[in-house]
Design goal:
single chain, mainly alpha, 0% strand
């Protein structure tokens, strides 16, 4: 970006002089706006990248903490039941939770496919208008 020019009193400048400087002022404005947009995009990309990495680290830690929690549950239940029965109960509970979430996901996707696409609605409206004419 070019260095800003000194401000000066333009009260005595002629109309033609002022009009002659308009293209340069517009060019400087466009260059400044493009540079500002590039800077914003660069910073936003950097922030998004760091955010994604931190989120992936959190998912990694969560992924490895779930077996520890399962082991904790099995160990806790094994004080009342045999270890094999405790492991079987924890496995069955996790299987039921998995099935419930999978069914909820399937229902959500079915709901998604039942909705009318806005582009299809516009195409239908245009077709009906053509049929009327």
């Amino acid at each position: 970006m070019s260095a800003p020019r000194e401000f000066r009193d333009r009260a005595n400048d002629s109309l033609l002089t002022l009009l002659g400087e308009v293209p340069e002022l517009i060019r400087n404005l466009i260059v400044a706006e493009v540079d500002a947009a590039k800077s914003w995009a660069r910073q936003a990309g950097k922030d998004a990248g760091i955010g994604v990495v931190l989120f992936l680290v959190a998912l990694f830690v969560l992924f490895w903490s779930l077996p520890v929690f399962g082991t904790f549950l099995i160990a806790g239940l094994s004080s009342w039941w045999p270890v094999w029965l405790s492991a079987l109960v924890v496995f069955a509970a996790l299987l039921v939770v998995t099935i419930v979430f999978a069914l909820l996901g399937v229902l959500r996707f079915r709901k998604l496919t039942r909705r009318r696409n806005p582009a299809q609605a516009v195409a239908q409206d245009i077709k009906e208008i053509r049929d009327e004419l």
